[in-house]
Each structure stands twice: as structure tokens, then as C-alpha cells.
């Protein structure tokens, strides 16, 4: 089964790098200071991810001479999880105030603090509350690394600040936040990197528009900022070594897109990027401007008028935020004013009513950015969402109704009076007492069979297909059938903007206790459910499964469509599955996972509300179950793209969250397709948190998809999901069900039959006849 795991990650790695070309800009900024400290270490180590040598801080000139008596040097516990050695496996612990002193040139500096919450020296990580200050600014106050890691769903993380150093010394001070014998502070890594004076603040008192106000805000050049988000919208992550000399990380925007209307991701990797006067080349890497996210294609322009392209960003309440939007027209057919015009909304307020990039930049391929200041009031304590919406501006009657974005950066601004950047800790989310888990790296066990990659003449399909087959050939075995009921209904696609709640919603279930409550999930009343479904009218019934019936519902007079799944009181899938579905989907956000909008548990009912998936299930399209509709067989390219999306979603569940999630019911009826044919993994009622020693006495899954190794050993790992994915890939390739219901079919089990075909050298026999001529025979050679 290790070969399946390896092949899965090779598959993801290849496909992600197929779309990204990292370009080092010749006009990168050269920082005068580039200090990186691996705290608690006495060696210098090169880190490939950011291309720098990290120096240990033991006996370094940046720590005081009495550092040995004022702090402790520790190493993280030897866990089996994969945590980067540098800078996270060593730390410096402080029981009292401790300062690092850096001799630097005056001007703004990036300060990046790296944290890995672990039980150092058997200290209770829940007692680590620290305060950090720099140049008279409070960066963190009473900050819990553990609570913030749980909230972010990350095993380790970095906090980035920008502080203006007025003289030649930067003093960075750490201290435990309260006077108790067991209180302590710690840090794993520190970066101090200089930056251009005018990178984010133009001048001593830079005027910037305050959204929803007629006046402007003057930002002092000596203000401090905290970076909350820096995203390469529509593109892949850009690591620090491919930034413009300042070692910033540009993350993907996938988890911040609201609902299923994620748009499309146009790119023009070979396009030369020109920089406007107010956007120098070091503003952002060229790859940020070569990729984008836009609404539907131009021919679907009228559809675009029905919804917004929406992102949401949890931020601290009670602060001003600087929002920088990056734009570059990558379509060389867009050259004139009034071809594409759209409105920019920030927090439901108009930031830019009529944004025409060509009118501002002068033509395609020119990189620009726009800055706005948004006030996030102290309506509630803690976190609330900052919304970003784009919508076509139709009043000018542009040629195309579209909107797009290339990049976004969001910074919290320090309060003027007390020079404070510190926010509140998030609520306690996961049970304490266990070390943070990080994704494991799968290892490949060599097999006697070697997969031959025939690239010439096969194109992309020839590369992807052998990898897909490799997921199957080394792991599929005989499986015992068992009875299982699962929801085969639809989730949903919203053609309009989801109603936005101003307050964060907290879910609490009896079995959840200390677990995280998320603002991604809303509570609906029973009255709202009845109105949305016309009192559960049977004419709106779109599916039935083990959990119950699925109805097509609507809000706002039909402007927003949802799928409403109502539990059957006699269902075998009861309260446990209901709570599990809410628990996982309220915490997980990914383009290839179905979006849970909310739930209703009034009057003894258990109801779940999802985005509406206009194209139903993958099963329907493979087996043409809906014969009353004009269903055409999926093309080979469509099938490949669907497989890629499912693999990405599953890869996120296994490695993209702090607590690994094992789905346990991957099958084609649980893969839903939105209006753009983007696949979404659904039905998390059987899901479990995975860890190496997890043994289950209650083996669950679906006939034909259940991993026989799990069935026999009762040991649950991510490989169980990969086995199921292998069956799905065979089903996509062959258009045959996992288990045939035809009495005359001698090949009942798809996995067994496929293995037999490949062993006999006739693997091409499993291919769907509708794909004949699209895949060359050499692709099946082993």
C-alpha cells in the first residue's frame, strides 16, 4: 500500500508544478539586513525552502551575555510527525523578560516570529502565554501559541510584523504574560529583514481612502503593521526564495473563497510583466501578476451579473486594516477602456465603484496595485470576517461582464495612541494534553513491477494516466462486501452571494466538548427551512440516501439556491453522523470539498444546508443514471480534471490540516460537480481524525471501495482513502461501477477485474468505449 501513497503524492506534486513557473525577477530588492536565527541551536543550516542559511542563536551577538541564566535551550520532543528541522525543532524558553538586540540601519523592517507548540521539557504548552514588543510597539500580548495553532489548524506557523526602526538598534523583547511559577514564553525562529521605505506606506503621512467614508486616512511612516494575509490569487504558493528579495510567502487563495462560485483561474506564464511607476518590480513577484482568479468565461457574462466573486478573511476586531489589491490584465485581447469594468466591495461597502484596469494601467501586462483602509469595528470580541467582493459594473455597458484579481495583502495597523498591534486569543478549540500533529511524509517501497512512463505522443493524458493506474495496481485486493447506507444526494452551487452574518457562529455538540467552533457554519431556524423548501414539498426532492431526503431549496426569492439534507428518523445514520459532518465541514475549507453553509436542529430535526451542485454526482455522469436529461459522456480531459481535483481535496484532508482527516467513504456518489465541473468531496459523516495507532472496531465504508487491509487489520490510516480513490480512478477510466449489479456480469468487482486485465497485459480493455481513440495503447504498458 506504500506505493499507492507515494504515487498519490507524486501525482499531486507533478500536477501542481505543471501550472507554476517560478521566476526570479532581475529587479529584486537587496535587503541591507537579512538576519535569520534558529533559536536554541548552535549550528548554521541551509534551508532549501527559503534559500538561506539559518544561524543558531547560541553565543550569537544578538543575545545578552547572561542568556544562559535568563533562558533555556530546548529541543522539541522526538515525534514521528514531519516538522521542518529548521527553525522548529529547537527553541529558546524564557521564564522572565529577555531581549534580542539587533544593530540595523534605520527604516522599516520585517520581523517574523516562528512558533511550534510542543511540550518542551515536559512543560505544559497551555501555560505558554507570551508578550512581545519591538521599538515601543506591542506586537503580541498574552499570546497563546497553542490556541492560535489550533485556530489556524496548523502544526507550526509564523507571525509577520513590520516595524519602523528610527535609530540604529532594534530591541525585540519576549516575556511571559503573567506572574505564575509555571508560566513561560518561547520562540523557535526569528527573522529581521529590511525592506524598501515606500513598499507599503508612501511618505511620512500617506493619505489612503477610508472605505465607506468621504475622508482619507493619513498613515504615519513610523506605524507598525501585522501581515494577516498575502495571497497569490488563482495561482500556486510562492515560497520565500522566489519572492522579490524580501523572503515573503505568497499563499494560495483557495481556502478563503466563499461558496462554490470560485470562478476560473486564467494564467499567462510566459507574459512579460511591466511595472507601473507606483508599483515597482519588488512590489510582488511576476508570477503573482501572471495568474489570476476571474468570474466565468466571457461568453457567460450574463451569468456573472447574478453573483459576486467573494473572499472572506477572519481578522481581529477593533483595528484599521490596510488592504492592497494587485491587478494585471493577462488577456492581450483586453486593450481598451470599458471592456472589463467591475465594482470592489470591502466589508459590504463600496471601495471602488467603477474599476477599469486598462484606464488605470494603460494596457495589458502592466502590474498595478490599489490600497484601501477598512475599519473593522469592535462589534464583537475576538475575530470577525473581513469580506472582499467583486461584481461586474453594468451601468457603463462594458463589452464583457467580468471581474478578476491577481493578488491580495491584508495588514493590521497599530493603534495610534498605545502603539498596540496585539489582538485577543481565539477561544479554546482542541483538547489539550497532546502534542500537535503534523502531516507525515509517505515513503515509497520499491516493487518488482516498475511503471514505464511513455511520454512521447501521449501528451498530458499519457503522464497522468500511468500515475492514476499506479495508485491502483500495487494496492487493490479482494474486498468483502458489506451493507452500508450513505447519502447519494446533491450538494449545491450558489449563483448569488451568500447572505453574510455579521456575527461569528459557534457550534457546540455534546461529543465535541473542547473542540473548535467555527464561523464558517450558520444556524438556520426551522421556519427558514420550511420557507426554503415550500414546507418540504416533494416536487423539490432531488435525492434520497441513507441519511434522508435532499431538497433543492432557495433563499431571497430564488436568488440563492441550496441543497437541504433532512434526516430520516428511521435512518441508520443518526445524530453521530450529523455531528461529525458539522464538526469537520465547519473547520475544513478547500476548493475541492463541499461547502457546508449551516444546519438546523430545532423541533427534533437534523438538517444540513450545503451549496448547490448544479451538475450532480460524478456517478451520474459516469453511468448516465439521469436518462431524462441530455447527458453526454464526460470527455477524457474532463475526467482528468475531475481526478486532479478529487486528489487535491483528499491530499488536503491528509496533509493540509493540523489534525489529519480520514474520510472513510470516498466514492463517485460522494463526489459532486458544480456548474464549472469542479469536483467536491462530500459526506463526512463517517470521517475520523487519523493518527498512526488508530484502531477501529467499527469498519465502515462502501462495497467495492473499502480497503481490504483496513477490513482485515481494523487499523485505519490515510491509505484506506487512497485505496478508495484508486477504485474511483478505475471507475472514471472504465465507466463501470465499483460493483456490478448485473447478474450476467462475471466480473462483479471492478478492482479485481482491472487487476486481472493488467496482469494479462490487456489493460486497455477496461477503458470506456466513449474514450476510444483518446488514449494511446502505450500508456497501459507496465
From TrEMBL:
The EC number of this protein is 2.7.11.1
Q: What keywords are annotated for this sequence in UniProt?
A: ATP-binding, Glycoprotein, Kinase, Membrane, Nucleotide-binding, Serine/threonine-protein kinase, Signal, Transferase, Transmembrane, Transmembrane helix
- Identify the stretch annotated as signal peptide in this record: 1-24
Show the InterPro entries listed in the entry: ANXUR1/2-like, Kinase-like_dom_sf, Malectin-like_Carb-bd_dom, Prot_kinase_dom, Protein_kinase_ATP_BS, Ser-Thr/Tyr_kinase_cat_dom, Ser/Thr_kinase_AS
Q: Name one GO cellular component term.
A: membrane
Q: Which GO terms describe its molecular function?
A: ATP binding; protein serine kinase activity; protein serine/threonine kinase activity; transmembrane receptor protein tyrosine kinase activity
The chain positions of domain Protein kinase read 536-782
Q: Does ATP-binding appear among the keywords?
A: yes
Instruction: Write down the membrane topology.
Output: Single-pass type I membrane protein
Positions that bind ATP: 565
> Reaction catalysed by this chain?
L-seryl-[protein] + ATP = O-phospho-L-seryl-[protein] + ADP + H(+); L-threonyl-[protein] + ATP = O-phospho-L-threonyl-[protein] + ADP + H(+)
> Which parts pass through the membrane?
453-476
Q: Which Pfam families match?
A: Malectin_like, PK_Tyr_Ser-Thr
| Record localization | Membrane
Record's protein name: non-specific serine/threonine protein kinase
Amino acid at each position: 500500500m506504500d506505493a499507492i501513497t507515494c504515487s498519490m503524492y507524486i501525482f499531486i506534486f507533478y500536477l501542481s508544478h505543471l501550472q507554476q513557473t517560478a521566476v526570479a525577477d532581475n529587479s529584486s530588492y537587496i535587503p541591507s539586513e537579512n538576519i535569520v536565527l534558529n533559536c536554541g541551536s548552535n549550528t548554521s543550516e541551509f534551508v532549501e525552502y527559503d534559500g538561506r542559511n539559518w544561524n543558531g542563536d547560541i553565543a550569537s551577538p544578538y543575545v545578552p551575555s547572561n542568556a544562559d541564566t535568563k533562558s533555556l535551550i530546548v529541543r522539541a520532543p522526538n515525534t514521528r510527525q514531519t516538522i521542518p528541522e529548521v527553525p522548529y525543532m529547537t527553541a529558546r524558553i524564557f521564564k522572565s523578560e529577555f531581549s534580542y538586540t539587533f544593530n540595523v540601519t534605520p527604516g522599516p523592517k520585517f520581523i517574523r516570529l516562528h512558533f511550534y507548540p510542543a511540550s518542551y521539557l515536559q512543560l505544559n504548552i497551555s501555560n505558554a502565554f507570551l508578550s512581545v514588543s519591538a521599538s515601543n510597539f506591542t506586537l503580541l500580548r498574552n499570546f497563546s501559541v497553542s490556541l492560535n495553532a489550533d485556530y489556524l489548524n496548523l502544526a507550526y506557523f509564523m507571525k509577520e510584523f513590520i516595524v519602523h526602526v528610527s535609530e540604529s538598534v532594534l530591541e525585540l523583547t519576549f516575556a511571559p504574560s503573567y506572574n505564575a511559577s509555571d508560566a513561560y514564553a518561547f520562540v523557535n525562529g526569528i527573522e529581521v529583514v529590511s525592506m524598501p521605505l515606500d513598499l507599503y506606506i508612501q511618505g511620512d503621512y500617506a493619505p489612503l481612502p477610508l472605505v465607506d467614508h468621504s475622508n482619507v486616512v493619513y498613515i504615519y511612516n513610523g506605524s507598525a503593521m501585522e501581515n494577516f494575509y498575502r495571497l497569490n490569487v488563482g495561482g500556486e504558493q510562492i515560497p520565500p526564495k522566489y519572492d522579490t528579495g524580501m523572503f515573503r510567502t505568497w499563499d494560495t487563495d483557495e481556502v478563503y473563497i466563499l461558496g462554490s462560485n470560485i470562478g476560473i483561474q486564467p494564467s499567462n506564464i510566459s507574459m512579460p510583466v511591466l511595472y507601473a511607476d507606483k508599483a515597482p518590480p519588488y512590489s510582488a513577484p511576476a508570477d503573482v501578476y501572471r495568474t489570476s482568479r476571474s468570474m466565468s468565461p466571457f461568453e457567460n457574462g450574463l451569468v456573472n451579473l447574478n453573483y459576486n466573486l467573494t473572499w472572506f478573511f477572519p481578522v481581529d476586531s477593533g483595528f484599521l486594516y490596510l488592504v492592497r489589491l494587485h491587478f494585471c490584465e493577462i488577456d492581450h485581447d483586453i486593450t481598451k477602456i470599458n471592456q472589463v469594468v467591475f465594482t470592489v466591495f470591502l466589508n459590504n461597502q463600496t471601495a471602488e465603484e467603477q474599476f477599469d484596469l486598462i484606464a488605470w494601467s494603460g494596457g495589458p501586462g502592466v502590474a498595478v496595485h490599489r490600497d484601501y483602509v477598512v475599519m473593522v469595528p469592535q462589534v464583537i470580541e475576538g475575530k470577525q470576517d473581513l469580506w472582499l467582493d467583486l461584481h461586474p459594473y453594468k451601468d457603463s455597458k462594458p463589452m464583457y461582464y467580468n471581474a478578476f484579481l491577481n493578488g491580495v495583502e491584508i495588514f493590521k495597523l497599530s493603534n495610534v495612541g498605545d502603539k498596540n498591534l496585539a489582538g485577543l486569543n481565539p477561544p479554546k478549540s482542541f483538547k489539550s494534553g497532546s502534542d500537535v500533529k503534523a502531516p507525515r511524509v509517505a515513503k515509497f517501497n520499491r516493487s518488482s513491477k516498475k511503471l514505464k512512463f511513455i511520454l512521447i505522443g501521449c501528451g498530458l493524458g499519457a503522464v497522468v494516466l500511468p500515475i492514476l493506474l499506479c495508485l491502483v495496481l500495487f494496492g487493490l485486493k479482494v474486498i468483502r462486501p458489506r451493507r452500508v447506507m450513505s447519502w447519494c444526494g446533491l450538494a449545491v452551487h450558489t449563483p448569488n452571494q451568500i447572505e453574510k452574518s455579521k456575527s461569528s457562529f459557534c457550534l457546540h455538540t455534546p461529543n465535541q466538548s473542547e473542540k473548535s467552533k467555527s464561523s464558517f457554519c450558520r444556524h438556520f431556524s426551522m421556519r427558514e427551512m420550511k420557507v426554503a423548501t415550500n414546507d418540504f414539498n416533494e416536487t423539490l426532492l432531488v435525492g434520497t440516501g441513507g441519511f434522508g431526503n435532499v431538497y433543492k431549496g432557495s433563499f431571497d426569492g430564488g436568488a440563492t439556491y441550496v441543497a437541504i439534507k433532512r434526516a430520516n428518523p428511521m435512518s441508520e445514520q443518526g445524530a453521530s453522523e450529523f455531528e461529525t459532518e458539522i464538526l469537520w465541514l465547519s473547520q475544513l475549507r478547500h476548493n475541492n470539498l463541499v461547502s457546508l453553509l449551516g444546519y438546523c436542529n430545532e423541533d427534533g430535526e437534523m438538517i444540513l444546508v450545503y451549496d448547490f451542485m448544479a451538475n450532480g454526482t460524478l456517478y451520474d455522469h459516469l453511468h448516465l443514471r439521469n436518462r431524462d436529461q441530455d447527458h453526454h459522456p464526460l470527455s477524457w480531459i474532463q475526467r482528468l480534471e475531475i481526478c486532479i481535483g478529487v486528489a487535491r481535496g483528499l491530499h488536503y484532508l491528509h496533509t493540509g490540516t493540523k489534525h489529519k482527516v480520514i474520510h472513510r467513504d470516498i466514492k463517485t456518489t460522494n463526489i459532486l460537480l458544480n456548474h464549472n465541473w469542479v469536483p467536491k468531496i462530500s459526506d463526512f459523516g463517517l470521517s475520523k481524525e487519523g493518527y498512526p495507532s488508530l484502531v477501529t472496531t467499527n469498519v465502515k465504508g462502501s462495497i467495492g471501495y473499502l480497503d481490504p487491509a483496513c477490513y482485515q487489520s481494523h487499523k485505519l490510516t490515510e491509505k484506506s482513502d487512497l485505496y478508495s480513490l484508486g477504485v474511483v480512478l478505475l471507475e472514471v477510466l472504465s465507466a463501470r461501477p465499483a460493483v456490478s449489479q448485473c447478474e450476467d456480469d462475471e466480473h462483479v468487482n471492478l478492482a479485481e477485474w482491472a487487476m486481472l486485465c493488467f496482469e494479462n497485459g490487456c489493460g486497455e480493455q477496461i477503458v470506456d468505449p466513449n474514450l476510444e481513440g483518446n488514449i494511446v495503447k502505450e500508456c497501459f504498458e507496465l
